[in-house]
User: Fold this.
Amino acid sequence: MGEFEAAAVAPVGPGYRFSRPHTFDEAQVRAFALAAGDENPLHHDVAFARGTRFGGLIASATHTTSLLMGLTASHFAEKGNVLGMNFSFDLLRPVRASETVLIEWQVTSMAAHSKGGCVLELQGAIKSADDRTSVLAQGTVLFTPAS
Assistant:
């Protein structure tokens, strides 16, 4: 990336971080799972979920991963144009339906794109209040800063 282009996206670059908290609740977990077509009773049947090793409802993977991807879109859209290119996730532990988590991302690399803007490689996570990682993420976005 040329000097002029790197200056245009400052302070976005390797090491750049952004995050936001999110609090789940049973109604939200239930509604999201059903809207996504996920009929697993762990996400919407309180009585069933209480009888499992989780002891209650847990958020679906579609819910947690959507929040991660949504944060990249919302955050970078405030600074220019953004297009998600690739995301992958490791589901390490369940997110409980009453949990408050931190959704966070860090830019790990930045490279010029042949048609303008830059490709940002990201590492992300959803972490519980006790700093345990529930979801680990990697992503790639095409970002073109506002002029």
In short: The longest helix spans residues 61-77. Helices lie at 3-9, 26-35, 46-50, 61-77.
